[in-house]
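SAMPLE LOG
Freezer: B-3
Tube label: C17
Construct: single chain, 511 aa
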Amino acid sequence: MMGQFIAAVPGCLSYFRDESRLGGQADYIVFPEDAAQAAAAIRRAANEGLPLTLQGARTGIAGGAVPQGGLILSTEKMDRFLGFSAGEVPALRVQGGMSFEALGSFLNRGLPPEGWDAESAALFREQARKLRFPPNPTELSATLGGAFACNARGPNSLRWGAVGDHVRGLTWITPQGEIWRIQRGRYCFDETGCPLPNGGRLSCDAALPPGGSRFLHPRPGLDLLDFLAGSEGCVGLAAELSLSLQALPASVWGVVYFFEDERSALDFAESLRKWRAQTPGGKALSTLEYYDQPSLELVRNQASQSALLRQLPLIDPHAGGAVQVELEGEDSDTLESLLMEQLELFLAAGGREEDTWAAASPAELEKFRILRHAVPELINIEIDRLRRELPELCKTAADYLVPPELAGTYREACRRDLEEAGLRGFIFGHIAEGRLHVNLLPGNREEISRSRALLDRWAAQAVQAGGLLAAENGIGRLKRDLLIRHLSPERLEQIRTILQALDPQGILGAL
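STRUCTURE (predicted):
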């Protein structure tokens, strides 16, 4: 039975780590197949006082899925499609262990599984191939429940926001093993807290500013569903989700613009951010990603070793920075006109028309998206290589958020700090939203210490600028100390009050 606890033997070692390269250990592991089995396992853990770690596909890079003893609850067997409803906004119900890859394939096939009622099955056959789930995290093996847990934002978040924005209903399992059915709009915060599905109330001060982190940050008017999005498995499990689907766009264009220097790439990205805000139809720009010179060099140097990377055009050795965009809409002529406006901005920033990649078909676009996924993947490969001589090395990275108009300046400060510290680093990400990823590759213990000092400095700067300590990848275990050091005493007390109310036994181990 999949709801039974299994001793965590050597064959389970892959469940002791995630993409952070942080390691842990556990006594038991359980693989429930549905919400009822998951709730029973959580109740048993609570009754026995077992520390509990919730896991999806373990694709996170902050160590949130790494166990620290006790029980692992893996959702990998909770991967079924549960139903479909049409309407003004179609919705698909899935279990939390469903992956983005499986979801995309399911919609593309348009074949409902056995067991659906006749009406839902017929509607799905008619509409599925015309629909998509808009959020597009680059790691397709990630689960929907895990993406909800960290409220993931993919490269197209400029237009489509985060995963939680497209969830209209939720089956939630509390740390006591209660099953809550939550519909968007039914439970909302006021200044003093929020009513709960079990008839209770979460009482807390909901008037504090985020203070550097959205983690467990209530505010008046906030939907309980949106509060749980991004709670990182610290107050419960997303067992089932009702996903809002959108029609596939009639036309999509993608372009990668290359520059000889990083400064020109940053100036161009800023001009595109302003262009989007000021231009009729600018909302068609769904993706705006930045890559620094070391990131491009990393991909170029590994291209000959990877069949996947060989699908990409060659990156010029002189490329010093790049900006990747996607536009989507219903009228191809309008998109082409918008692209011509972008091209004028590109040339004005010092670019050359021959230094571009362009795509206008789904197959070509997927090739370009390889670039965005390749950079963090190749960094992880480098970490694994370094760990042979430095076993204590784990993911050393930041994903701070700063006001978008400060993103270029912040990036330059990070690069300057890396050079002054003599450290190897890569900077890329969603620059139009002020969300940049900085990945460091320390080569020895002393460099690990210097790297951590830089992460701490950048955290302080981000908070001082009105930004966030973690914009996308979560706090997890790796950034817990940063959270404690850089949040105000009032925000920390607010978080602890919420944790005490929702997980009074502390089995999920937050803070």
